Amino acid sequence: MGELPIGRRVAYWRGRRRMSQQVFADRLGKSKSWVDKVERGARPLDKVSTIAEIAAVLRVDQSVLLGRDVRPVADSERAGSVERIRAALSAYDIAVGRRVPDRDVSAAAQVTRGVAYAWTTYQHARYPQLTELLPELISGAQRGFAREPVSGRVPLVEAYRIGAALLTKLAETELAWLAADRAMTLATGDAVLVATAAVQLGEVLRATGRARSAVSTVRTAAYRIAPPDLDGGSSAQLSLCGTLLVQGALAASGEGDERAAADLLDEAADLADRVGDGHDHHRTAFGPTAVTAARTVAALELGDAGEAVAWHQRTVRRDGWRWLPVEHRAAHLIDAARAHLHAHDPTSAARTLLQAQSTAPAEVRHRPAARDLLADVLRSRHAPTTIVQLAAALGVTAT
To answer: Where's the HTH cro/C1-type domain (predicted)?
Structure first.
């Protein structure tokens, strides 16, 4: 990353801090267009004072922006497994028609069971275990599809979906993009299968700064499968449609489009009320509580930390909170901790981050965004001893 232009480094750290271009621009007192030009390299950053202001907003040292110390926090424990996932995704045996020996092909039912177990592992936030099993799951699903394209199609799409979800979580966004793209390509022709793949594609597009594409893609996928009569739609259909609308809302909020975000969340809420809490159709965990949690993120992306905290408090008070998957709850708590920090309440941020750690330790240990947030909280002179101890245990420092 040290060889990147300074504008790209600004974009990278803005993404790590989970700021939209609009929020970043507002904090600098600049226009969104100015930020966009800087990040694209169309406008030079040649004033020391401006670089200092940007570094202060991004909460990094100026040397990081200047490329002298830009190595992000790495988790060496997962590096080898991620490379094996990369190798599995880089295999093109199916495309070139390479023959797969019978002994290397698992039965479709076995692959399907493996996919179900992998999803459970992900939803319980057991990321180290998942990074270990995912390479063989993807390879096995690819071999199964090569031998039996009809029965092997859905398991392979699901394996790619899991890979995209995990890799996005671990900030391996370009690899996540490959997995999501593979899923979308394979799903082509089946509207429901495309919609399931689009859930993860939306996440990847948001994570890579392609919010506008995310809004367009997920919205199209959602409306394509939306039942003409909502009262006649199945819970599975409504859940998938609603989840895509939520993804679109979060992408719109990242673009600073408050109206679009609100409209999409309201549409999703209408569907959620029909589905109810406690379901997990298509691994979406969609329901009223999931939509309320999404409003927390949307408010935060739009720069209203106080509103984000208020939505968080409503979320955890709902009965459906305890029915959300462990991963979903822990991820939400990290978003809420970020909201507290942006609301200038580091004590509450620390408390909420510790709740995330208690809910799903791997969410804090292995997710770069969580580790960055921990470092930010650690910088506060009000950081409690428990946060200092957690940071020490994870090897996270405030510098």
So the answer is: 10-65
Which one is the CATH code of 6-65: 1.10.260.40, 3.40.50.300, 1.10.390.10, 1.10.132.30?
1.10.260.40
pTM (predicted TM-score): 0.79
What are the angstrom distances between the C-alpha of 263 and each of 46, 192, 218, 219, 258? Answer: 41, 23, 14, 12, 9
Residue ranges per structural domain of the chain: 6-65, 76-303, 325-399
- Pairwise pLDDT comparison (106 vs 341), residue with the higher score: 341
The SS3 call for residue 194 is helix
Contact in structure between 318 and 289 (CB atoms under 8 Å): yes
Distance CA 300, CA 316 (A): 17
Residue 326 in contact with residue 361, Cβ under 8 Å? no
Helix (H, G, I), strand (E, B) or coil at 1: coil
Residue 57: how many other CB atoms lie within 10 Å: 20
Distance CA 370, CA 125 (A): 13
